Amino acid sequence: MGVTTALEWLGSCSGCEIAILNIGEDLVPLITETLDIVHAPVLMDHKYFGQCGEGVTLTIPDAVVGIVTGGVSNHEHVEVLEEMREKCKVLIALGTCATHGGIPALMNGWNQQEGWQDIFRTASTDPGAEIPDVEVPAPLDRVYACDEKVKIDMQLPGCPPNPELIAEVIISLVEGRDPVLPGKSVCDTCPTKREGKGAVNKVKRFIANADFKPGGPIDEMRCLLEQGYMCMGPVTAAGCAKRGAPSCISARVPCRGCFGPVRKGGNQLLDMMNALASNGIDYKSVVDRRSILRFSGAHGRLRPVKKRVEREEK
Fold it and tell me: How many domains in the chain?
């Protein structure tokens, strides 16, 4: 008998579940010998209110380990998350949506009502469509990370998360030890050449390839931030690298920040502005600074911009 495990997804795209499958051959012994999966909507037919709908309250089986993916954006998500917290001894938030809001939290930068209007009443759909409010969960005021609603015992970010790290977390829990996880930034694991402050003082748009030798080793390419590109390696947690260089850097493109801030409670926007300044780059040259929070807009980081009220001419 393995460790009883419950899996749930909230506001997510199922990319984290695909990452679990991408553990590969090592996944077979995990799910056949190590884990006893008692609840997983993505894998098995287990109803919240009983198999025949006879229940009156949402119920999830007791489990030692709970894994939750996705952010919290409506009242059903809150109910499911609270039930997972109640029934699981160890609750893990998996993926950047669960840990920092992820892409769905970009909605936090807009007025919610105006956002729903744009979604449901655009000319490309049906100008007369109503915002649904019957038989669908009521939305929250914004998108939340899981730890804003319940106590989370372990966070493993990533969009998607690294399959090797998922396996490490599961195995460490079974073995009763602390998991071996990266504790540095993407920059700390990046092998590109650093020559000091770059020769540019403005952020360049990534509409042309960076300067590197095609087919050459990654450690011969100069740091993309020093080349003037918006590489978020200094303010992003490491963990995306399977073996070798970080994933984006391996493709010769700047880090997009998908693993969230390096330190707990970090603000990627403020930290990135400091990183640009330290490299002699004018932070004012960043066209859309709020986009730096594209993966970490929960925890009140990303908020609607107040419209400026024009003074009436007297």
Answer: 2
Nearest CA-CA partner of 164 in 268, 19, 303: 19
273 is in which domain, residue-wise?
182-303
Question: Which residue, among 3, 40, 38, 4, has the nearest Cα to 21 in the 3D structure?
Answer: 40
User: For position 211, what pLDDT does the model report?
Assistant: 92
Q: Fill in the DSSP letter of residue 92.
A: E
73-118 pLDDT, tens digit per residue, is 999 999 999 999 999 999 999 999 999 999 999 999 988 888 887 7
| φ/ψ of residue 143, rounded to 5 | -90, 130
Residues 187 and 94 in one domain: no
Instruction: Report the half-sphere exposure of 267 (CA within 13 A, side-chain side).
Output: 11
Q: Which of 124, 141, 175 is the last residue of a domain?
A: 175
Pairwise CA distance, residues 205 & 136, whole Å: 41
Summarised one tens digit per residue, pLDDT across range 195-222 is 887 677 888 888 888 999 998 999 999 9
Q: Looking at the domain assignment, is residue 252 inside a domain?
A: yes
Task: Give the C-alpha separation, 129 to 131, whole Å.
Answer: 7
What is the CATH classification number for the domain harbouring 55? 3.40.50.700
